[in-house]
Design brief:
The protein is an alpha+beta fold. The chain has 17 helices and 18 strands. The protein has an eight-stranded mixed sheet, with helices on both faces.
C-alpha cells in the first residue's frame, strides 16, 4: 500500500521526532527494557514509508583497490590510535579551526555562573523535563565526557567548583553543531551560553544556544577508570591528578584555607608576620643537615635555612612582642611518607610567655582551624582507621613518665647523671627493651629520647603534649625551673607523629654559648645535623631578650591530619621526586 505525498511527509516527521526522543532517552539513561518499546514504535513508523518494507535489491559492485580517494574510509577509531596519533589528530583539528578563521586558543570569556552556583540556584526548582526559558547563563570549563547522538549531544563540563551537564542540539546551534562535533574532544576547555533545564531523569543541564572553543587540548585525558592510578605518575603530573580526581583539588583547597586561617588568627591576636632570610651564612635553629650553595659575586658559601628561629628571636630582642613567619624550610634529609626536603612551617614567638602559654595557643589554633566548615567542620575527625578527638584539653605527659609506661621496671629520672655508671644502666635497659641505636649515644638524656622515639611515639594516636625534654636534645630551650637536666619544651604528637615543637626560649647568653659550643663539637666530630656557634645571634641575646615562648608547627603534617591524607606528598602540590627513569 502506497502513501500519499502528504502522508509520507507526516510519517517522515514522526520518524524524526521518534528518533530524537530515543536519543534523548538514551542520554537520560533509560533502561534497555524500557527503550525496546520505543524502538519497536520507530520501526513500525519506518515500515509505513514507501520502499521501507522491501528495500530494492542492488547489484553488488566488484571490489576495487582502495586508492588515495578512499582515505576517509581508512580513518582509525580513537580506541585503536596510538598516543602520538591521537595528539596529531587534535593538532589537525587546531589547524582545521584556524583554516576556518576560528581561534582554538581564545583570549577571554565572560562567565556568569559556576557549576556550584547553578546547582544551588536551582535547588528545588524545575520539574523533570522543565526548562527555565528566561535564564541566560554562561559557563566555562573542561569537557570530561562527550556523548553524541546524531543531532544531539551531551557533555559533562567541569569547572573549579564541580560538574554540570551541557545539552547541545542542531536545532538550537544550527551549523555550529557540526563544528562542535568535529572539533571538540574530551579535555578541551569550552564556553557555553544558554538556558537551564532539568532532564526527564532530573539532571540539571545548561541547554546551549552558543558555544566557543576556549582552549583546544592537544593531549587526551587519562582513561576515566584505568588512567592515573600509578602513585608516582600522579605526583609527577599533579595537574592531571587534579583534573581527574576532584578529592585532590579539595585537599589543596583545604590547605589554602588552613594557611590563610593561621595568618588571620595570629594577626587578630596582635602577631606580625615578618619575613626572614632564606640564604644563611651558617645554619642554625634546628638539628638538621642543610642544603649548601654559593653566591658567585660575593664569593660566599651559603646554606638554605633549616629554621626561621634565630632571626625571629632577634626581632623579639629588637622590640617586637609578637612575631611569626609562615614559609618554606629546606633540610637535606631523607624522603618518606612524613618527610620532604622542602616543607612549610609556621614559627611564632611571644614575649613574656612560656611553654605553658604555647600549649594553650596550639590548642586554640588547631581547634579553631579544624572547626571551620571549609576544613573539618568539627573536632572529631577520621584518620585512616582511627577516629581522632581534638576536644580540649589535650593530654600532657612528661617524657620520663611516658617512657616509664613502656619500661615500668626502670625509672630514668632516678638516675644520677653525674655517675658514669648511669649511662651504662640506661643503655642496658634500652637494649633489653629492644631499642636500637643506643651504643653510640653519649648521655642518659639521649638514651631516654631514643627510648621515647622507638617505644612511645608510634603509639600516640590522640593529640598529646609530651613535655620536659632532656637538655642534651634541646639546645635552644630554657632550663626547667625545678628539674635539673631538663628543659621546658614540648612536642605535640598525634597519629604517631610530631606536629609541633615549642620551648620556653633560652634567654641566658652564657648558657646559650655553652650549648652552641657543645653542638659545634658534635659537628666537628662528624655530626652533620649539629649546628655552629652563631655569633650574630649571641650578640643579640647579650643585648637582652625578654622571657619568650616559641612555637613551631609543621603545616604539611597538620594538613595531612586534617584532610586524612596518608603521605606528605598528598598535601604538597609538587613534591620533590627522583627523575623519571622512563
Amino acid at each position: 500500500m502506497s502513501a500519499s505525498t502528504k502522508s509520507v511527509g507526516e510519517i517522515e516527521q514522526q520518524v524524526k521526532e521518534k528518533g530524537d526522543q530515543i536519543r534523548q532517552l538514551k542520554a537520560d539513561g533509560i533502561s534497555k527494557e524500557d527503550l525496546a518499546r520505543h524502538i519497536v514504535e520507530l520501526k513500525a513508523l519506518k515500515a509505513k514509508l514507501p520502499g521501507e518494507s522491501e528495500p530494492p535489491k542492488t547489484e553488488k559492485k566488484p571490489k576495487t583497490k582502495k586508492g588515495p580517494q578512499n582515505k576517509k574510509t581508512q580513518k582509525k577509531e580513537p580506541e585503536s590510535m596510538s598516543e602520538a596519533e591521537l595528539r596529531q589528530a587534535r593538532l589537525d583539528k587546531v589547524q582545521s579551526m584556524r583554516d576556518a578563521s576560528v581561534e582554538p586558543f581564545e583570549y577571554s570569556f565572560k562567565v556568569t555562573r559556576t557549576a556550584m552556583q547553578l546547582i544551588s540556584e536551582y535547588d528545588g526548582r524545575l520539574e523533570n523535563g522543565e526548562e527555565d526559558e528566561e535564564a541566560d547563563v554562561s559557563v566555562a570549563g573542561r569537557i570530561m565526557t562527550r556523548r553524541v547522538f546524531g543531532k544531539l549531544a551531551f557533555f559533562t563540563l567541569q569547572d573549579e567548583t564541580g560538574t554540570i551537564q551541557l545539552q547541545m542540539d542542531k536545532g538550537r546551534l544550527g551549523d555550529s553543531f557540526k563544528d562542535l562535533k568535529a572539533w571538540t574532544d574530551g579535555g578541551d576547555i569550552i564556553g557555553i551560553c544558554g538556558t537551564v533545564r532539568r532532564t526527564d531523569k532530573g539532571e540539571l543541564t545548561v541547554y546551549a544556544k552558543e558555544w566557543k572553543m576556549l582552549t583546544k587540548a592537544v593531549l587526551q585525558l587519562p582513561d576515566k577508570f584505568h588512567g592515573l592510578q600509578d602513585i608516582s605518575k600522579r605526583y609527577r603530573s599533579r595537574h592531571l591528578d587534579m583534573i581527574v580526581n576532584p578529592d585532590v583539588r579539595d585537599t589543596f583547597r583545604k590547605r589554602a584555607t588552613i594557611t590563610s586561617m593561621f595568618r588571620r588568627l595570629l594577626d587578630d591576636m596582635g602577631f606580625l608576620e615578618i619575613e626572614t632570610p632564606v640564604l644563611h651564612s651558617q645554619s642554625g635553629g634546628a638539628e638538621a643537615k642543610p642544603f649548601e650553595t654559593f653566591h658567585n659575586s660575593m664569593g660566599l658559601d651559603l646554606t638554605l635555612r633549616i629554621a626561621t628561629e634565630l632571626h625571629l628571636k632577634r626581632l623579639i630582642v629588637g622590640g617586637f612582642n609578637r612575631v611569626y613567619e609562615l614559609g618554606r624550610i629546606f633540610r637535606n634529609e631523607g624522603i618518606s611518607t612524613r618527610h620532604n626536603p622542602e616543607f612549610t612551617s609556621i614559627e611564632l614567638y611571644q614575649a613574656y610567655a612560656d611553654y605553658h602559654d604555647m600549649m594553650d595557643l596550639t590548642e586554640h589554633l588547631v581547634c579553631s582551624i579544624a572547626q571551620d566548615p571549609n576544613v573539618c567542620g568539627g573536632l572529631t575527625i577520621p584518620y585512616g582507621e582511627h577516629t581522632i578527638s581534638l576536644e580540649r584539653p589535650w593530654r600532657r605527659v612528661t617524657m620520663h613518665d611516658i617512657v616509664k609506661e613502656e619500661i615500668p621496671d626502670f625509672d630514668f629520672s632516678a638516675l644520677d647523671v653525674s655517675d658514669p655508671s648511669s649511662l651504662d644502666k640506661a643503655k642496658e635497659t634500652a637494649m633489653k627493651a629492644g631499642v636500637p641505636g643506643v651504643d653510640d649515644l653519649n648521655s642518659v638524656g639521649e638514651v631516654l629520647n631514643q627510648c621515647f622515639e622507638e617505644l612511645c611515639e608510634p603509639k600516640l594516636i590522640q593529640p598529646t603534649f609530651v613535655i620536659d625534654y632532656p637538655v642534651e636534645v634541646s639546645p635552644l630551650a630554657k632550663p626547667h625551673r625545678t628539674k635539673p637536666g631538663i628543659v621546658e619544651r614540648f612536642e605535640l604528637f598525634a597519629v604517631g607523629r610530631e606536629h609541633a615543637n615549642s620551648f620556653s626560649e633560652l634567654t641566658d647568653p652564657v648558657d646559650q654559648r655553652a650549648r652552641f659550643e657543645a653542638q659545634a663539637a658534635k659537628k666537628a666530630a662528624g655530626d652533620e645535623e649539629a649546628c655552629d656557634v652563631d655569633e650574630d645571634f649571641l650578640a643579640a641575646l647579650e643585648q637582652g631578650m625578654p622571657p619568650t615562648g616559641g612555637l613551631g608547627i609543621g603545616i604539611d603534617r597538620l594538613v595531612m591530619l586534617l584532610t586524612n591524607s596518608p603521605s606528605i606528598r598528598d598535601v604538597i602540590a609538587f613534591p620533590l621526586l627522583k627523575p623519571d627513569s622512563t
